[in-house]
Amino acid sequence: MADIDDKMEKFSELKADLSKYYKGEKYTWLQILLLEHLPVADITNKDFIAHNLFNKLEERGDIAPSKVHLLLDISKVNSELKKAENLIIQYIKNNEQSTDDYRQLSQYRTTLFKALREVDSEGFSAVIANYQLEHLKFDNIWKAVLHLEVKQLLVNKPDKIKKFARCFEPRAKDILLEIGVEFEGKSNKHKLDQSSSDCEDHPPQEKASQSQETRIKEYLKKKQQELYKDFNKLETAVLEDLDIEELFTDLKLVQSSKKENKEKAAKQNRSQHDQKEKIPKTLGETLKMIKDKNARKIIFTGKGGMGKTTLLRYITYNWATGKDKTFSDKIVFLVNIRDLQAGKKILDAIIINIDYLETFTIFMGTKNDEESVQLIKSFIINHGDEIILLLDGLDELNQGAGNPLVLFTNSDYKNTTIITSRPENTAKFIDKCDVHVEVNGFSETSIKNYINRYFANNNDLAERLFRKLFYNRHRQEHSVSELCSSPLLLLMICKVWEESGNLPDDLSDLFKELICCTLNQYLSKGNSDENKSKIASIERMPTNFKTAILALGQWIYEGLKTNKLIIDKYEFRNMFEDKSIVDLALKIGFVYKNPPLSKSDKNEMFAPPHKIPRW
């Protein structure tokens, strides 16, 4: 009985905490999202707040202490509700529930919400004018749409959606054209697509003559950009989430092109100064060189922890957001090579990461998802010059998986391929590539710039750290300054310096300090009820932390034998009887949550934040 009371109390606390996130405009979001779950009288009750709506959902049995997936689904519709989402996920984990099956909102509801996020002020004004709502004085699109839905002026029927879609620019309109099919069927989708063509920038005749290939390209490009537009964030366990722009890595160009490689002897006669001037130092300059020379086979090599994965994510993010125009007219696919299973090829990995097959099938009017897969594969193969493949981690290729080398050796492949790898076993790729770029991590100048940004409010602390790192480095075989070329190690070194104002000269002592610093960051977030005081030394580390670190070390040790450093939470938990130790090991800051390459991938994967350079 006490256990039941405890669960009810925690559930009540969850509802109360969530209510804080749904105020003002966000409360209207909640009203719209719950229109299919609660009576209109409850939705429009002026005396209600979010907590009242949650109570009504509980009364109807839609949510309960062991049933909160509807709340999770609602929180996932907008990144602004990330804190609410994290709160629910933590509640689910604490109650040993699964986060897999959370889809409780209809396709119509989520897609309508997605379209409304794209509506600008002109679209809002058009809705007010077309539906003659001027007298109601709505101050945003959400309140106007709530009114339209309550009055049944906007429902999931083609004629209603068509009228609504006429108010908007193409981006919001295209999203709207994806709905109206969940209950109405594909034929109505095509009727809607045709009947709304008069609202578009192109006349109906041009729309009708648009080639299938163009429609496929536009749809794939739009969906891939939506997937990658948030790829600038690196989710950490105990630190603030990092922006990859802050972990930008300088590059050293080793070989610019085949032609220039053949002229190497002639170049050796030039001065050292002239050669340095021709070596790109930034990613932007390197990408420009790749585009100018129409290079199609590019390999980035570098030691572990130098930022190769971050680089690919940065390229992907800049393409998705339009911040870089190098590949603006292409479609980008990012693939983790470690995900290639035995017998599978790169194309298979691309398809696995596509989580919008259902809407693609509707958009193209294919019979089923299988036909859609063949259509996408055919497009990628036949339109290689419009495809950019970013392949991360050649050194993590599984035995029996398709070797990406064929993309470098077979002239039939016209796509641009950028592949990353540690330097080992890359000779064949380097021999066949058009461009080879060595990723060296942070340069000395970059390290200083990063330190200055980190200690922006304390110039003296920044200057003393820089002197500490570089004053006596030539007297030591392996100095602390060498570690700073790894962006994430530099971040941790800054944390240690900020806490203590001191760095050990001995690398083993430094790593002990880094471990204590990481654990103290975890404790400072209020993550432990048992351990309140700071950990002064590694010898005084609490037993539960030691056990968790040893468990993590055991996984990494076994992974090194099979070249598998990524941690699958499900497999990791199965290694130990005490699941709480595993959960703690993944929380305390020594591994980072690996973001999935598709929204449908619910596996929880973690990776070490740094891989120590090999001297």
Report on the architecture of this protein.
This protein has 615 residues and is an alpha/beta fold. The protein folds into 5 domains: 2-105, Death Domain, Fas; 108-210; 233-439, P-loop containing nucleotide triphosphate hydrolases (Rossmann fold, 3-Layer(aba) Sandwich), CATH 3.40.50.300; 444-484 and 486-540, no CATH class; 543-607. It has 32 helices and 11 strands. A 6-stranded mixed β-sheet has the order 3-8-4-7-6-5, with helices on both faces. α2 runs parallel beside α9 and α25 runs antiparallel to α26. The termini are far apart. The relative contact order is 0.07.
Summarize the structure.
The chain has 615 residues and is of the alpha/beta class.
Keywords, please?
3-stranded antiparallel sheet, 50% helix, alpha/beta, 11 strands, 615 residues, 7% strand, Death Domain, Fas, Rossmann fold, single chain
Q: Would you state the CATH class of the largest domain? A: Alpha Beta
Strand content: 5-15%
Identify low-pLDDT runs. Answer: 180-210, 261-278, 611-615
Shape-level CATH architecture of the largest domain: 3-Layer(aba) Sandwich
How many distinct beta strands? 11
Give the CA-based shape.
globular
Per the CATH scheme, the topology name of the largest domain is Rossmann fold
Helix content: 40-55%
Order of strands across the biggest sheet?
Answer: 3-8-4-7-6-5
**Radius of gyration, Cα only, in angstroms?**
27 Å
Gap between N and C termini = 60 Å
Mean pLDDT: 79
- Derived from helix and strand composition plus strand pairing, the structural class reads alpha/beta
Give the count of structural domains. Answer: 5
Per CATH, the superfamily of the largest domain is P-loop containing nucleotide triphosphate hydrolases
Largest sheet: 6 strands, mixed
Query: What's the helix count?
Result: 32
